[in-house]
């Protein structure tokens, strides 16, 4: 049997037989489990942002710096992760990242001021960057059943982590805003022990990655276009994630339930729905349409009543899940740069928006009113879609060139970027 791309078809990742999704070595499950906790850290503080503000006598804009410091360090660290992992190996990079998270998450729970908490959250971001940028490479290298099963397992860990983070934050944060930080430190320490026990060192790449390689990769027009579009999209994404809890103004339990439902939709649409939509309509059409729908959803969220805002917050998870999957494949399939290098350059650009949105959204509310931050977020989503539309040839160029070199005419499928699962690539997703 052959795939639609003409190469050998991979085994069905859902097959329960040998190499199926659920029949993986202990090392894979250890890494995937730690990945769930790592992604939980992103949304962990969502339900307790108002509680943190009250407990530390801080404003919404000050507390939102928890996201800004976290993602600012994560963005810069993208230039370092490949440099580190290509020298000390994937296993040691994972353990180093986990150690940083354990230490700084624990310290965050002891914070006496919002300034201390923001600083500790920055150290947490460095650890998370080292871990998540390496985790899929390790899973792909150790998984049974080919890259399709490995990538699906990683995407599932991402979705589960994004869904459970707010839930854990709500359950522990109802007693004290400090407990979710201590809980994360304990869970990551367990992940550290599991990876130490079950994961063997992975082969190191033949060539060491330099600090400038990710920036050089952005010289490719298609990769740069994907990164710029994702930058605007991420501003919208993290306006929803970091600013909406203040607008909803709910108890930790209720806010946690809202963002748990949001995370479930994100996981389902990322892992199950997005690949099917891409196959039917093509990646660029799916991405452009999803960005426009996200813009409409965010605009309604900003101007609707409380119930409408809750519904739109949950619904945004569906569009975000689709976007996350398609952007990852665009970034990794559009250029000829090594996949870890392309991923680092792409993430270096887009995470700056994740740092900017939590800072600017509360500021914009202070300068105007509560509706305008969502108007800005809707505009940035549309701008992301326009970049995809205007730069669609650059985003689709490599496979069309391959067809032309072979003396053929590019097909509609060839005008789509490669899927990450086609060649067992190393991926860093949202």
UniProtKB/TrEMBL annotation:
<dbReference type="InterPro" id="IPR011701">
    <property type="entry name" value="MFS"/>
</dbReference>
<dbReference type="InterPro" id="IPR020846">
    <property type="entry name" value="MFS_dom"/>
</dbReference>
<feature type="domain" description="Major facilitator superfamily (MFS) profile">
    <location>
        <begin position="27"/>
        <end position="396"/>
    </location>
</feature>
<feature type="region of interest" description="Disordered">
    <location>
        <begin position="404"/>
        <end position="430"/>
    </location>
</feature>
<feature type="transmembrane region" description="Helical">
    <location>
        <begin position="370"/>
        <end position="390"/>
    </location>
</feature>
<feature type="transmembrane region" description="Helical">
    <location>
        <begin position="220"/>
        <end position="243"/>
    </location>
</feature>
<feature type="transmembrane region" description="Helical">
    <location>
        <begin position="65"/>
        <end position="86"/>
    </location>
</feature>
<feature type="transmembrane region" description="Helical">
    <location>
        <begin position="124"/>
        <end position="144"/>
    </location>
</feature>
<protein>
    <submittedName>
        <fullName>MFS transporter</fullName>
    </submittedName>
</protein>
<keyword id="KW-1133">Transmembrane helix</keyword>
<dbReference type="InterPro" id="IPR036259">
    <property type="entry name" value="MFS_trans_sf"/>
</dbReference>
<keyword id="KW-0472">Membrane</keyword>
<keyword id="KW-0812">Transmembrane</keyword>
<dbReference type="InterPro" id="IPR001958">
    <property type="entry name" value="Tet-R_TetA/multi-R_MdtG-like"/>
</dbReference>
<feature type="transmembrane region" description="Helical">
    <location>
        <begin position="255"/>
        <end position="274"/>
    </location>
</feature>
<feature type="transmembrane region" description="Helical">
    <location>
        <begin position="93"/>
        <end position="112"/>
    </location>
</feature>
<feature type="transmembrane region" description="Helical">
    <location>
        <begin position="286"/>
        <end position="304"/>
    </location>
</feature>
<dbReference type="Pfam" id="PF07690">
    <property type="entry name" value="MFS_1"/>
</dbReference>
<dbReference type="InterPro" id="IPR053200">
    <property type="entry name" value="YfmO-like"/>
</dbReference>
<feature type="transmembrane region" description="Helical">
    <location>
        <begin position="151"/>
        <end position="173"/>
    </location>
</feature>
<feature type="transmembrane region" description="Helical">
    <location>
        <begin position="179"/>
        <end position="199"/>
    </location>
</feature>
<feature type="transmembrane region" description="Helical">
    <location>
        <begin position="28"/>
        <end position="45"/>
    </location>
</feature>
